[in-house]
């Protein structure tokens, strides 16, 4: 990893706006008009354009634009055994009692109560040795000679999103128990990224503000 950067080193936060080609490929894959191989080729080509754009404008550290990811966390379900995807409507139906009220409130706070998004949940013991970011970096390394940045969802973010008592509780005694595996999962991936030579590793924690600004009498800082 790089130890020194010039003043005002530039890089993208992570994702780039989806292109029309990416949206079309996603629709085509879901409808069966293209297969996974064809979809991967479109994503590869669009990622290459993102890399070339960054190089053209002089960005110092390159990211792939996260075109391989449905969103900043759901892609984990595609790569880590023990994690499955659900619509928010499905999760609302799965949760029960007080837990359902907490879940509905959490969705509303995140402007997700319209059931328009998907979310991952732990539905088995996590494979803590699964690679979920490194494959993107291997592809990216073939596209540029510039330093790379990997974006990794933080353990806190993963615990917050993956724990659904009615599903995860069959395999873990609670959030803390699940957190142990998530910490190991993230540690293992970060070590692989370091060994591969990724120069910058960014832990994504967009809900940290919720911890900082939670009320003093809050029962917990995350759902």
From TrEMBL:
The keyword Cell inner membrane does not apply. Residues 100-116 have a biased composition (Basic and acidic residues). Its cofactor is Zn(2+). Residues 9-90 form the Cobalamin-independent methionine synthase MetE C-terminal/archaeal domain. Keywords: Metal-binding, Zinc. Residues 100-121 are annotated as: Disordered. GO terms for molecular function: 5-methyltetrahydropteroyltriglutamate-homocysteine S-methyltransferase activity; zinc ion binding. InterPro entries: Met_Synth_C/arc, UROD/MetE-like_sf. It comes from the Bacteria. GO terms for biological process: methionine biosynthetic process. This is Cobalamin-independent methionine synthase MetE C-terminal/archaeal domain-containing protein.
């Amino acid at each position: 990893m790089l130890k020194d950067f010039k003043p005002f080193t530039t890089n993208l936060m992570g994702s780039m706006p989806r292109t029309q080609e990416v949206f079309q490929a996603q629709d085509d894959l879901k409808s069966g008009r293209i297969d996974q191989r064809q979809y991967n080729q479109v994503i590869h080509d669009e990622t290459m354009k993102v890399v070339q754009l960054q190089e053209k404008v002089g960005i110092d550290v390159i990211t792939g634009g996260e075109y391989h990811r449905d969103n900043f966390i759901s892609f984990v379900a595609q790569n880590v055994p023990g994690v499955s995807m659900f619509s928010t409507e499905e999760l609302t139906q799965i949760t029960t009692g007080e837990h359902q009220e907490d879940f509905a409130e959490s969705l509303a706070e995140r402007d997700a109560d319209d059931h328009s998004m998907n979310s991952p949940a732990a539905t088995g013991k996590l494979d803590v040795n699964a690679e979920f970011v490194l494959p993107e970096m291997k592809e990216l390394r073939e596209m540029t000679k510039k330093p790379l940045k990997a974006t990794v969802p933080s353990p806190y973010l993963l615990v917050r999103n993956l724990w659904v008592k009615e599903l995860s509780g069959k395999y873990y005694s609670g959030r803390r128990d699940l957190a142990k595996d998530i910490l190991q999962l993230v540690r293992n991936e970060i070590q692989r990224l370091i060994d591969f030579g990724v120069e910058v590793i960014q832990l994504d924690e967009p809900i940290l503000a919720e911890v900082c600004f939670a009320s003093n009498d809050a029962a917990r800082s995350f759902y």
